[in-house]
Specification:
The structure holds two protein chains of two kinds. Chain A is α+β, with helices and mostly antiparallel strands. Chain A has nine helices and 41 strands. In chain A, strand 3 and strand 4 form a beta hairpin. In chain A, helix 6 (about 220-235) packs antiparallel against helix 8 (about 260-270). By secondary structure, chain B is of the alpha+beta class. Classes of the chains: A alpha+beta, B alpha+beta. At the A-B interface, helix 2, strand 26 and strand 30 of A face strand 3, helix 4, helix 5 and strand 9 of B.
């Protein structure tokens, strides 16, 4: 009965997958002996099942049945596949080692062949690496490395010919319930043909250079073991990196907690030239043991962080309430708004007060300076225009909601969003609206002007491209609010959303080029340098993403949500966090140069000008720091 | 015979003028005409041409090529749309042509299905799947199809999806995509996944050694090979007033970049440029299948 149920509930054939390729259903019996229980792995040629051996009716004896489905249309290819399979079986049958699974049986039926092996209660190393929260403990990797050296030494000492495993990698290493390693999958016996055009080669990433040329020696297994340990300790999958690039990615660069001794052992195993590696698995084991003895004696020194107190402000200026916004600088004067409702003008060199201009609401809007006037929005619903020198009102423009967006001045107009749901285009000469573009919700993001279009997002996740006449050119829908302000580079427009995504759209037609998944939502406005876009998110990370391929170059963890936005100056990126600190990172690597702690979360963008960083904090202070 | 003479003498010979010599237009004159012709495009549109040859030394074509050129008609103007693919199947004895063919069919099929609503219906909502995700899923599917239809075989794949001025490229193996700039520069925008290129990148061998390296054709990444395939996927702007060129190593591996450029620049139009390129590779011995696609974004 249960069999029938399975048949009914199995997925409908989509017409692509021919029937014989289907996995065996639980309850199927193979060779009248092995009762299939479940799929425990899927490979390129078939599945691996857990099965019960029915020859032992009184005990539950579990086995692993490795399946090979042969659907190759070419008879020659089919034959080769079967031969390889039998070879694996015969090879295993001659071996006897605690780290090698025992073989019980092999047989073929129809298009499928099966190898019946010892069932290993455990997980493969690849899954263990992937599921671990952080790095594997050094001691753990050491122990497994030593055991793997043991089994390699056993294989390499095989008579008459040494057995070269050829495919050492985390997915071929099982860790059983006792924590011991078992080497699985002896099926890879690649035949190498040199000189023939397009000949393919072994497992990318883990294989040494000479294996790509068709040579497989014990030293190739040593390299692959080095690559496996490297992967385990750094969590960097070598299949995703260029081949032979381990020397560019030393273990401690990614995982500084590892001892230099262990790093050195792995580096030796990974030498490009085979003769520079350990001469045998036994030698590598000895080196691992030595590294372990040393670390056992050394207590782990905490990696010395940079001193937060090392950076001293050039000057500070106290406002009467929180500063949530971003400063602007013009002719030696720094302009910044505060939630004490004032816009302040300070001498950028020493922080001396010049003037302040009171509004009737908090100011988060970043001031824009144009032809002697300062433009900024206020929660009093107005766009204020004030003389940059005098601090006297030039004109004001009324919207119907608080203005949290910042002005963008272009083409004789100032573009600014408002909580009244409109994007406003205000004529600089008349101070009157040229047009208003209605959106579905408050516009807090700051417009960006490029390609003769105005780009802006709103709080319901709509992103608009509007032309200079105020007509919608295209629209894109994110899943949650876009408070983040867009930036345009190379015809693409980038912005973040609270839906945890960094978007890259084609600036001209709104097509989604790529999207990058952030750990959590984001209100951060991205910054750019070269072909890197920088962002941050509520998950506490500052991210660097390559603009063409959408690959993450690095991420840097701050101690709280990243609520401030990054800015790039020379070869550094500066970004504030809700942990109250401003971070200065080398922008190509994400390496911390310095950090400076304020007394409250930073939500604005720092301004860097003439080697000085200006930043406001919710601790009411404006800080000037040496970049 | 009489007829022949009659024909010969029936019409008076064209009046002879002393100064009238007919000579083919020089390349320079041709170019000035064609460049004038190009200026006529006032709307952005793609123009493409292909060239293929078995070469002089193979008796099987394992390369596959695809070129689809259109526009997405929308309410806010027409957006140029193009899909161009070159795939070079590998390893003669193991179904190279099946692999390259399956790669093209699957990748183009997946992509065209996604664009069907935009090409043939008026769909206003933009998709929430990114162009790079569409490319990625098409390559992943092709990987599966090849492993099923021709296990053990492999193919290169260089696919360019053009939408407006953005070119999204998916790339595996050692076929190449080049940008040809109007100032006469040729830039490979893809990176070969070949052993020799990697050794060159690492500085283990010099470019001269690379040219004569015995394992020049060994790839470390190919469609249909390996359990985990990571194609290079990236988006770059179409070069202003330039060209996009896709080709297999039967072209780039045989003639120098200088000669590539020359063949393109001396041709009056894209079709002739493709023919010139194929002829040049064959003239240099034609050791391998040759495939080339040239694309121009006119009215930029």
């Amino acid at each position: 009965m249960s069999l029938d149920t399975h048949r009914i509930t199995q997925p409908l054939d989509d017409g692509n997958d021919p029937a014989p390729r289907r996995q065996l259903q639980a309850g199927t019996t193979l060779a009248q002996r092995y009762l299939i229980q479940e799929v425990i792995g899927v490979g390129g040629m078939g599945s691996v099942y857990r099965a019960r051996d029915l020859h032992f009716p009184n005990v539950v004896k579990l086995v692993a049945a490795k399946e090979m489905i042969n659907l190759a249309p070419d008879p020659l290819v089919r034959q080769t596949i079967v031969k390889n399979f039998e070879r694996e079986a015969n090879l295993l049958a001659t071996l006897n080692h605690p780290s090698i699974p025992r073989i019980y049986d092999y047989f073929s039926q129809d298009d499928r062949s099966y190898l019946v092996l010892e069932f290993i209660h455990g997980k493969d190393l690849e899954a263990i690496i992937a599921e671990a929260d952080g790095f594997l403990p050094e001691e753990q990797a050491l122990t497994w490395g030593i055991e793997l050296c043991d089994v390699l030494a056993y294989l390499h000492a095989h008579k008459p010919d040494p057995i070269i495993f050829r495919d050492m990698k985390p997915s071929n290493v099982m860790i059983n319930h006792n924590g011991d390693v078992i080497l699985v999958d002896f099926g890879i016996a690649k035949t190498f043909q040199t000189g023939i055009k397009g000949t393919m080669i072994g497992t990318e990433g883990y294989s040494p250079p000479e294996q790509y040329r068709g040579e497989a020696t014990p030293l190739a297994d040593i390299y692959a073991l080095g690559a496996t340990l490297h992967h385990a300790l750094t969590r960097r999958d070598p299949r995703l990196e260029p081949p032979f690039s381990f020397d560019e990615r030393p273990v401690r660069k990614m995982n500084p907690a590892i001892s230099p001794d262990l790093e050195a052992v792995i580096a030796t195993a990974l030498q490009y030239n085979a003769q520079d590696r350990f001469p045998s698995a036994a030698d590598m084991k000895e080196a691992l043991l030595n590294a372990g003895r040393k670390t056992g004696m050394l207590s782990h020194m905490p990696t010395s962080g940079l001193q937060a107190s090392g950076v001293k402000p050039l000057w500070t200026f106290p406002c009467e309430d929180e500063i949530r916004g971003t400063p602007a600088i013009h002719q030696g004067t720094l302009f910044i708004g505060s939630y004490d409702n004032n816009l302040y003008a300070l001498n950028a060199a020493d922080g001396k007060f010049q003037w302040k201009y009171p509004t009737d609401g908090g100011i988060v809007s970043r001031p824009g300076v144009y032809e002697g006037n300062v433009y900024f929005g206020s929660e009093d619903k107005r766009l204020h225009v004030v003389g940059a020198r005098s601090g006297k009102v030039a004109w004001t423009y009324y919207t119907e909601g608080p203005v949290r967006s910042s002005p963008r001045i272009a083409e004789g107009h100032v573009f600014i969003g408002s909580d009244d749901h409109y994007l406003h285009a205000v004529n600089l000469n008349t101070g009157r609206a040229a047009w208003k573009f209605e959106t579905a919700s408050p516009v807090r993001s700051t417009p960006f002007v490029a390609n003769e279009l105005v780009y802006v997002g709103n709080e319901s996740g709509d992103f608009y491209a509007v032309d200079f006449r105020g007509e919608l050119k295209w629209r894109f829908q994110a899943k949650r609010a876009i408070t983040s302000s867009p930036i345009v580079g190379g015809q693409a427009v980038y912005f973040c959303s609270m839906d945890s995504t960094l978007y890259a759209l084609d600036g001209r037609n709104g097509w989604l080029l790529w999207r990058y998944r952030l750990g959590k939502g984001s209100i951060v406005s991205p910054a750019m340098a070269e072909n890197i876009v920088f962002a941050g998110a509520v998950d506490g990370f500052i991210y660097a993403i390559e603009t063409q391929s959408a690959r993450e170059l690095w991420r840097f963890r701050t101690e709280h949500q990243v609520s401030g936005s990054p800015v790039v100056y020379k070869d550094s990126v500066y970004c504030g966090s809700a942990d109250g600190q401003i971070y200065c990172l080398e922008y190509r690597t994400g390496r911390l140069r310095w950090k400076f702690a304020t007394q409250g979360p930073i939500t604005g963008t720092p301004l860097v000008y003439d080697d000085i960083v200006y930043v406001g904090s919710t601790d009411h202070q404006v800080y000037a720091l040496l970049a | 015979m009489r007829n022949y003479f009659r024909k010969l003498f029936q019409k008076p010979a064209a009046p002879r003028q002393d100064s009238a010599t007919t000579a083919p237009l020089s390349e320079l004159q041709l170019q000035s005409i064609t460049s004038n012709a190009n200026a006529r495009f006032d709307t952005q549109q793609l123009i493409a041409a292909c060239g293929q040859s078995m070469g002089k030394q193979r008796d099987l074509n394992e390369d596959s090529v695809l070129a689809i050129t259109s526009t997405l008609a929308g309410n806010s103007g027409n957006t140029p749309f193009g899909l161009y693919i070159v795939a070079d199947g590998m390893g003669g004895h193991q179904f190279g042509e099946v692999a390259s063919n399956a790669a093209i069919r699957t990748v183009a099929g997946m992509i065209m299905r996604k664009f069907h609503p935009y090409l043939f219906n008026l769909k206003a909502e933009l998709p929430d799947e990114s162009l790079q995700e569409i490319m990625q899923s098409a390559v992943t599917e092709a990987q599966k199809v090849i492993q099923r239809e021709a296990p053990g075989s492999g193919t290169t794949l260089t696919a360019a999806l053009i939408l407006g001025q953005q070119v999204t490229i998916a790339h595996v193996g050692d076929s190449r995509a080049y940008m040809v700039y109007p100032d006469g520069r040729l830039e490979a925008v893809t990176r070969d996944h070949s052993l020799v290129k990697r050794l060159e990148e690492l500085g283990h061998i010099s470019p001269e050694e690379a040219a004569n390296y015995p394992h020049r054709n060994v790839l470390y990444r190919a469609l249909g090979q390996g359990e985990l395939l990571e194609p290079d996927i990236f988006t770059i702007p179409f070069p202003t007033a330039g060209l996009l060129m896709l080709c297999s190593d039967g072209l780039w591996g045989v003639i120098s970049e200088q000669n590539l450029l020359q063949a393109v620049r001396e041709a009056p139009n894209l079709q002739r440029a493709c023919q010139n390129l194929v002829s040049a590779a064959n003239a240099a011995g034609g050791p391998d299948n040759i495939s080339v696609v040239l694309v121009q974004l006119a009215g930029q």
